[in-house]
Amino acid sequence: xxxxxxxxxxxxxGVAHNEKELESEIMRIGAVDPACxxxxxxxxxxxxxxxxxxxxxxxxxxxxVKDYREAxxxxxxxxxxxxxxxxxxxxxxxxxxxxxxxxxxxxxFSRQRIRGRF
Length: 118
Known about the structure:
Largest sheet: 2 strands, antiparallel
Helix content: 40-55%
Number of helices: 5
Distance between the termini: 87 Å
Order of helices and strands: EEHHHHH
Strand order of the largest sheet: 1-2
Shape: rod-shaped
């Protein structure tokens, strides 16, 4: 997998191989050279790289973000969301209410003909 290279004036100032490293590099570089990170965000380089490595969810979350602090907040939200396991409740058939009823009797038919009916 190709890493993401943070460049400032044709000089590589940081490298990220995954989302965790991306977060730490944005934090580190943003503290020293926020214009570098903001430029990569504005140009969509980080979003394109995230799509390339297959993380479309985080890419969508960072789409349109132009400030590195907002990007950090969204990355942290993504990490919390990813690490929280949401499990759908298992489906159980509804239980029948038990009522005290007499067992239904089968109708009794006699073999005698009823006058006037047949």
